[in-house]
Predict the 3D structure of the following.
Amino acid sequence: MTFTNSFELLAFHETAYTIYAVMIISIIAWFGYNLTRKEAKSIVRIPFYTYMAFLVAGGVGHHIFTYNTIPWVSQDITRHEVTPDASYTFEIQRHKWIGIPEKVTIQCGQTVEFDVKSRDLVYGFGLFRQDGTLVTQMQVNPGTDVNGILDSNDMLWTFNHNGVFNLTSTEYSGPAQYSEDGKEDLMLVKNFVEVVGCTDGGKK
Amino acid sequence: MSLMKNLVHGTNFDHTSLNALQKVTLRAVVMSFLFFGLVAIEGMIMRLVVTGASNPLPEMFSHPQHYFSIMTVHPIVGIFGSTYQLVFAAFMFLVPFLTKKPLYSVKLANAVWLLITIGTVLAWIAAFVWQYAPMYTLYWPLPADTIQFNVVGGIVFIIGVALIMLGTLGFIYNIYATIFARVGVHKDKTTKELLISGFGIDGMLNLWHKLTGKPPYSKEPALALPVVAIFRGTVDTFLDAIVILSAGILVLVYLLFDASGAPLDVGAIDALLYKNYFWWGLDLVADGLVLIYVAGSWYLLATLITGQKLFMENVARAALMLELLVSWMVWSHHLLADQGQPEMMKLISGEMVTAFELLTQGLALFITLVTLWKARPLKMTMELKYLLGGLVGFGLAVPAAIIQADMGMNRVLHNTQWIIMAHVHIALIVGLYMTLYSALYVLWPIVTNGTKMFSSKMSNIHFWMYLIGGIGMGAFGGMAGLDGMLRRHLYVNGEFNTLMILAAICGSMVLIAWVIFLLNIVMSVGIKGLIGIFLPAHDKTASYGIEPETVAQNHKA
């Protein structure tokens, strides 16, 4: 099992968490009801150490599961050893993208590096599908090294599905990101990324 | 008695019968619930704005300066003005009550609620008047960005936050001075014994002695378990106060230099390092003191409601010690989307140590449930209902956060409505507040000298509306997060309209529930009684003499 994009992951997550939420609410409700009944008997006995082992397995197993099913985890950890198919570097200053390409076209399956630098505030870099769902994101911190060169905020992303994605900042950097009436996000770049060449189900 | 008589005089509340400790407790409780109302209104304004252009609010609420200034003070009012006040009030009453010693200083307790109230109001004014809106996270250098924000507004805001932190330090001093006072039952105890008990080390040693076949290290620990939790949680409260205070001083220095016409270079402060420092401190609230205080409150409530000893008390004591270490090492889960953050810190602090919270909180849940189960049948009192509601809240909220504290999930959930709604709001509104409501119902007859609650129907309506509204708002907001809705972004074009309308409906249930609760309280104590709470106490006693065990007898079926 591998999630090829965030859409699949989020759909899985929504289902799994909803089941869990219904379960925990039901258990406590059932528990509360039986607390008032003298004749109530335990249906199952949960030994303490089994319960603790379950929690440990849940906590650790969750990360093992995601490491093995979400491809961008290992890719992110080893990103400095990976040669990307394409690389884009640009900056942000006073809520404006500087040196940003008009449009980025990516072939299906390509791994692309985005390196974004901030000249003043903390921003975010986020790609969104046309329906508003999040493709990927990172924080963009300002700062320079001792030589005054702006700090990198770099990420790799492999695109496995066709789509046209919008770009905006995912971190709050003050009200100046918006028009005065709030109706326009001034950092929004529509149709910034287009991925082509994938099959309908994703990948080549 | 007519409704009007109730409104003026209450049921049988007599404020002149209250001693100094009871009065100072109730003062903070009153302020806390007033701030809760303010925060609920603020929350509803923001919920309505994001429902889109058809919302009934004046257009100015959709303007970014206005919207984000509300968003900035919302957590300040909610967490400090309301939650801190309520928790501090409860603990400054409970520590003397449980240790059977007087509170170190009632004057200091009065200063605490006054400082927090004034500080919260100042922060609110800074946002309302000058629209100072750097958010509670204060990511450097945004709070010192005088191009976007008014300097005076910034200075007023920081002074407000500083006053809140000074009030917090006053609370901490009062609690420790009371715990370490060698009077009453602690007359013959040494500071070392109290320290060992306070950190939960005696519980750990008891477990070790049991494993190695030795007699228990301590048959009768110096401090009751809830006091241990208060002691432990207050360590994090202290560290958090120091971090926020120091960050505030840093911002204040920059703002003052800016106001003097000689601005300092904001680039001198490393933004990522600052983020680490600030989140280390701020996370001690979310993942430190809240979890510890809540665990301690669950243990206390379970023992008071059942009248029985806590199940696995030594394990609970030891777990509180473990939580100390865990809470200091988990802040990196807030920086999983920061690419400059070392990968090892993301892995160890952000993922692995954070996952321990599932263990510590799961343990508290287990111990509380088993303690209740062993004492059945129990009457389904209001306090028991709220306690179960609190357990549901954390049962939902903790895994929601653990899921996100993962490098894979964080890439698509960071800064979305998922974390703020499915985790933070459910943890606070449902988990924490329902636990606090439970404590309120347990302590109500003690703190008010047996005042009858005006209406149990209103209590029940409050419970159900609050529970359903709280979970519903968190759930719909969380779903919007999964659909890509960011948490600190302005959406005025109805982008997530359906889910936001549903969240707003649930949010209004929480707001209405608060009105019903407040009305019930006012009808119980009366307006005269409410004013009387703020008048000086004739009885200067700083303790409360009822044995905790007697409270439990009222709850047995």
User: Anything to note?
Assistant: The longest helix of chain B spans residues 497-533. The radius of gyration of chain B is 23 Å. Chain B touches chain A through 86 residues (CB under 8 Å).
